[in-house]
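Record type: monomer structure entry
Structure origin: computed from sequence
Chain ID: A
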Amino acid sequence: MDVPCVRVARENGEATRQRLDEAELLAHDYEIVHDDGDLFIPVSDSDAVPDDLDVVTRDVPARETQTLPEDILGFEPSYERLGEIVIIDEDDPDRAQEVADAIMDSSLPVETVINRASKVKGEQRVREWDVLAGDGTETVHREYGCEFLVDVAAVYFSPRLATERHRVIEQVDSGEHCFDMFAGVGPFVIPAAKRGATAVGVDINAAAIEYLRENARRNDVEDRVTGICGDVREVAAEYQGWADRLVMNLPHSADEFLETAVELAGDDCVLHFYDIQHEDDPYGPGESAIRAVAEPAGYAVEVETRHTVRSYAPHEVNVCLDVRLTR
């Protein structure tokens, strides 16, 4: 049957499927098909598909009967997928186990179900998990042509930010010097290097840096990637004035590291500053903080993009300021 589909290169298929799923645009009654290196992902509303995706009409087969978790439970549970792990967030232990059992009994390609057991905490930004089905918290996540080995019990990683990371990475030019001040397992560093940048990632979590180095090897960019374990404030002197692009994805406290960012910035540097603020003034506090540090250091400050990443909590939003610093 002819239905609207998003056509995407196979290596970008899973990331695009996740993006469409988050936007509730997947047409679950039809199969995803592949042909000559492309995937065709059926969508329910072609007009709502983001403009950067290619929508075509394609004859795809109706999906054979598939058992979903909601078919078993009688209600639709909330969950997200990371590789072959399904992550749920249930407060009641009995309900959590019921949801986990239904996910495992469904047709979803999953090996493990885990439930959030704590909030992200500590300077290493990790949380506790309850493994409800399967074994282990390590998996391989694929995103826009990159492959990331990650253990969610040892490092911070959010698959929900795939679209935002791709937005930033598309701005990277070959030959740039990119510096991620809070790099994790490398979801900004690795794709930047794949675009031809020389990339440095720093993180205080030693496990994250080990995964970053492994992911550089997995994606054949280890010759352009340096992973450093430590406090970025203590590392900055080695890279003073080096960066053409800085990523500051530590939204609760990035403003505390702005002096270090200015130390790292070259004469013309783009800063991606992540923040969480009240919806009434989501960008003003971050912009004021950047100007207060950068302008006395001799930089002209130009905000190129004010971008809302996602809702974070009632009346609070996670935002990003793309700011050009020119000495």
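Annotation 1: The domain at 2-59 is CATH 3.30.70.2580 (Alpha-Beta Plaits).
Annotation 2: The first strand starts at residue 2 and ends at 9.
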